[in-house]
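User: Could you go from structure to sequence for me? I need the amino acid at each position, not a summary. Structure tokens:
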């Protein structure tokens, strides 16, 4: 099974490379943005036609939510426009494209987990650019979109992954947002889900993948990390975690509730998706 990976240096891309060797007969060819410019249509075509992979996993994205408001052109270029060339190249080679998307395609007005049947209604530029990318991929007969959220691992450069270090080194209390409820997703679990789709020879569809458990706020996530640090080392003295009830001024609007239901993917592939609290063990 030949698989090409784009966005190889990103948080998810690194985990794909880490876990690929234990997959049965998977031949992975990873590309960072320096090795393959996915904005270059001809370079994409040449790469995919030369390798003729069975699957292409695209983990490259413009992910800075606030910056997308200031640079909408750049966000749409990387999250949507370049997928025209990617699907065209995959079509020529008979390759199935797996593309990662986000819970931010929803407006957050529900209070029960979103399913694949719920209508997207993004409230910011980042979400709009990702939705535009979804439509391009799903218009391709061998296109798979996997929506995920709050992905973290030891390789991640986001707040969730930074919390253990902040708690151990900060003397002042750590104030953490209580406004958004979402589904934290441990990157290894996400990648195993992507590999399960490949193993099940899925070639088309829209899927949600997050850890289970009904989601949480960042505050609840940080509190759980603090509890686990103290459980593992009762002599530790992590910083206090205090709730923050106000939004950061000047930021992009964000949906307040975007927990997603991953049942469809679990039932199709037969995988058991862990609870969101389980992944924390791996970053503390």
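Assistant: Here is the amino acid at each position, in order:
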């Amino acid at each position: 099974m030949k698989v090409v990976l784009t966005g190889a240096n990103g948080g998810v891309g690194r985990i794909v490379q880490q876990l690929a060797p234990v997959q049965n007969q998977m031949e992975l060819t990873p590309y960072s943005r320096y090795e393959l410019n996915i904005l270059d249509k001809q370079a994409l075509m040449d790469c995919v036609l030369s390798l003729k992979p069975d699957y292409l996993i695209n983990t490259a994205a413009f992910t800075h939510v606030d910056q997308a408001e200031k640079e909408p052109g750049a966000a749409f270029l990387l999250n949507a426009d370049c997928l025209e060339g990617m699907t065209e190249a995959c079509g020529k080679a008979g390759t199935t494209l797996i593309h990662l998307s986000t819970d931010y395609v929803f407006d957050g007005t529900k209070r029960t987990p979103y399913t694949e049947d719920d209508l997207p209604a993004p409230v910011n530029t980042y979400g709009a650019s990702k939705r535009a990318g979804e439509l391009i991929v799903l218009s391709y007969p061998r296109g798979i979109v996997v929506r995920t959220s709050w992905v973290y691992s030891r390789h991640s450069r986001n707040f969730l992954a930074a919390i253990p270090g902040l708690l151990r080194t900060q003397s002042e209390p750590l104030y953490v947002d209580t406004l958004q409820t979402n589904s934290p997703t441990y990157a290894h679990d996400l990648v195993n889900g992507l590999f399960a789709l490949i193993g099940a020879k899925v070639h088309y569809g829209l899927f949600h993948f997050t850890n289970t458990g009904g989601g949480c706020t960042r505050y609840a996530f940080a509190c759980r990390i603090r509890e686990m640090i103290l459980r593992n080392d009762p002599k530790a003295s992590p910083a206090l975690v205090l709730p923050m009830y106000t939004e950061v001024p000047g930021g992009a609007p964000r949906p307040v509730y975007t927990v997603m239901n991953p049942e469809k993917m679990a039932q199709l592939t037969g995988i058991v998706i862990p609870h969101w609290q389980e992944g924390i063990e791996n970053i503390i």
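One structural detail worth keeping in mind: The longest strand covers residues 96-102.
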